[in-house]
From TrEMBL:
One of its GO terms (molecular function) is DNA-binding transcription factor activity. GO terms for cellular component: nucleus. Residues 35-67 form a coiled coil. Residues 1-67 form the K-box domain. It comes from Davidia involucrata (Dove tree). Keywords: Coiled coil. Pfam families: K-box (PF01486). InterPro entries: TF_Kbox. This is K-box domain-containing protein.
């Protein structure tokens, strides 16, 4: 019955039909509300799950950062130790000598100085 066959119905039958339709509409509305509430609850659970997952990922990122910083610091310290050791093993061409130089133990080559500068030096000494 789609509302087209209402001609032969009495007033009482029409009231009864209206009551059935109203009850049907209320049932549809109730079911629709129930479905919406279920969807809302499901969405809230998904949100909580996503928030927990985000927090776990943030903690993992922080752990990785700390680990990376620790490794970087360790590498820097290792390189510093290696550089210090290489100096102790004689691989360094830097030397330090204290005291006066002695011609007996160490002869240095005196760089050639142009005659003009020698004359200037002697002039300065005579003044």
């Amino acid at each position: 019955m789609m509302g087209k066959e209402l001609e032969g119905l009495s007033f009482k039958e029409l009231q009864h039909l209206e009551q059935q339709l109203n009850e049907g509409i209320l049932s549809v509305k109730d079911r629709k509300e129930q479905v919406l509430l279920e969807q809302l609850e499901k969405s809230r659970l998904q949100e909580q799950k996503a928030m927990l997952e985000n927090e776990t990922l943030r903690e993992q990122i922080e752990e990785l950062r700390q680990s990376f910083i620790g490794r970087k610091h360790s590498v820097i310290c290792s390189n510093t130790v290696c550089n210090c050791r290489s100096g102790k093993e004689g691989n360094s061409d830097t030397s330090l000598r204290l005291g006066f130089s002695s011609d007996v133990y160490h002869k240095r080559k005196v760089p050639k100085i142009e005659s003009d500068s020698m004359d200037f030096g002697s002039q300065m000494a005579s003044q």
